[in-house]
Amino acid sequence: MTVELFEExxxxxxxxxxxxxxxAAMIMLVGTxxxxxxxxxxxxxxxxLTTADGMSVNVSFTTLGWLQIGLGVVSLLIxxxxxxxxxxxxxxxxxxxxxxxxxxxxxxxxxxxxxIVVIAFDVIVIYSIVAHGREMKLLREERGSPYPGEExxxxxxx
Length: 158
Description:
With 158 residues, this protein is mainly α. The chain is 74% helix and 0% strand. The protein is built from 7 helices and no strands. The chain has helices at 2-9, 17-43, 61-84, 87-106, 112-132, 135-143, 150-157. Helix 2 (17-43) runs antiparallel to helix 5, helix 3 packs antiparallel against helix 4 and helix 4 (87-106) runs antiparallel to helix 5. It starts with a helix and ends with a helix. The model has no long low-confidence stretch (mean pLDDT 76).
């Protein structure tokens, strides 16, 4: 009976951790999109439907390209951290997804359909992290190490 009470008091990861894993995959996908868009912005200004003057925010495509490449790399790193249940990565995931949505709102005149798709992905990422983000850490604690030699690696590093 004591064990049952302890199990009820101790939180367990639910099946909703799949949403967080999906959010991590989506933030990594959005990060890949950002890197690709950044490269296009840097390499071909004539690709977009409007000039830099016709965008919501008057910013050059070179600046926009570097911003998107930076967001992309950070998003990829955050996605890996989300899969591991790292709290800092979960908080940063919400922040980066919100910044990504704002950047795409500003650039909606240059590539409208693409921006709307990425904004939708960002909303999914924010929802998954806010609703069930803490459960990824619980899942990792319940299941142990993510790969078979992690304990040995950590022991050698000490």
